[in-house]
Amino acid sequence: MERKEFLKSIGAAAALAVTFSCLGACSQAEDFTAPDVITPDPETGALFTIDLSASSSSELQNNGGYLILNNIVVAKNNSGNYVAATVVCSHEQKKDVIFRSNEFYCTAHGARFDLNGKGLNNDGSNGLKIYGTSLNGTILSITN
User: Fold this and answer.
1) Which pTM was predicted?
2) Residue 10 vs residues 15, 18, 103, 107: alpha-carbon distances, Å
């Protein structure tokens, strides 16, 4: 076997090994379902739900805590109610909105929004998309 043929045969074998290992990993990733986030439910209209008893949602146990899922900031406000808004700031369409001091805040330029999405400063003047929330036991639903 010449050197060129040998290199080709090794290249094909390596590509085959990488392909099979990648396919195996990909199928495992597709089968994984996070226990705390459930996919959209056409029956209830929920975009997704969060199991508040799961350790991964522990940030939502305390007033002022928040987490970001599916490009939505989900928070527990200072009154103990759950609120949700898009992470996409209306000022420059950056995905930098968080929950801070009982309001939604864009870390990119300082745009501020109240819990209803109304802008609280010039950078927030275009408002922010707000999502509905409802609680049933320990399951928090996020809706359009």
Assistant:
1) 0.72
2) 9, 12, 58, 50
143 Cβ neighbours under 8 A, 6+ residues apart: 44, 45, 46, 47, 131, 132, 133, 134
The DSSP annotation for 96-144 comes to -EEEETTEEEETTT--EE-TTS-BSSGGGTT---EEEEEEETTEEEEE-
The single residue listed with the structure tokens 């900031």 is: 73
Q: Rounded to whole angstroms, how far apart are CA atoms 57 and 81? A: 15
* Phi, psi of 87, deg, nearest 5: -85, -10
CATH fold of 37-143 reads: Rieske Iron-sulfur Protein (2.102.10)
* Contact status, residue 143 vs residue 46, Cβ threshold 8 Å: yes
Domain coordinates in residue numbering, the chain: 1-32, 37-143
Task: Give pLDDT tens digits along the chain (144 positions).
Answer: 565 554 455 454 444 343 333 333 333 333 333 335 556 777 778 999 999 999 999 999 999 999 999 999 999 999 999 999 999 999 999 999 999 999 999 999 999 999 999 999 999 999 999 999 999 999 999 999
